[in-house]
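Researcher: Re-running this chain for the archive, since the previous output was lost when a drive failed. Same request as before.
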Amino acid sequence: QVQLVESGGGLVQPGGSLRLSCAASGVIFSFNAMGWFRQAPGKERELVATITGVGVTNYADSVKGRFTISADNAKNTVHLQMNSLKPEDTAVYYCNMKDAIARVGWGRQRSDYWGQGTQVTVSS
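Model: Regenerated structure tokens:
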């Protein structure tokens, strides 16, 4: 079974920086991409940034130029460097692994996986 564990959230002042990390555990044979999504109170979950296994990145327009996603494929980890944070970045941030083929029991299963979420609060 795959587990995604996030770390690095917290409280930061506007203009500050935070770095989120996500580590995937389990026997993972392959995956399409890893990424970060966020959900603010009263809003739907939205994409923040994704990175494929060959390093192709995709960002939401609202974070372009401020956030940078990176990955260590050998360790199945992904990071999100967040700079110039704004109050509207406040949300629970979730790590995602898309289209992962992983060992489940004695077999293999294709699925998407999510972390438990980490709170990011941008406030003075």
